[in-house]
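Changelog note: in this version the structure field was regenerated for every chain. One regenerated record is shown below for reference.
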Amino acid sequence: MNQETIYPVPIRYYETDGMGIVHHSNYIRWFEDARCAMLAEVGFPYWKVEESGVMIPVVSVSCEYRKMVRYGDQVEVAVRVERYTGVKLEVSYEVRECVTKEIRAVGTSSHTFLGKNGKLLSLKRNYPEFHAMLTSMAGKGNL
């Protein structure tokens, strides 16, 4: 299994609708927060990556909602690198209740790497330290 980072999600009242249920759009925000926390945890916070000239745009994102999250629930996002090819990154997410670990939603996002000029770049060639870290996080079977 690939390295997993757990990101606790504070449920804010403004994220809910009139029934106290978290609006579906917030899950995508949680995915981004969890992904940023994962990279920061391994020494590559987004600001540092972008400062070095690497942009990591989202190419696609999906979320499957399994059970509602309500205001007052305590949930976490488990995030991990599923696949890394040197030019493409695939990340998976599980939104889980903190105590029971019941899965409330699952999702994925795909990313590529661009230079500040907007052109595709190879991390292996241009940013070997970042490349090595992502390769290690993705585990065997990648590249």
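Spot check on this record: The chain has a mean pLDDT of 93. The radius of gyration is 16 Å.
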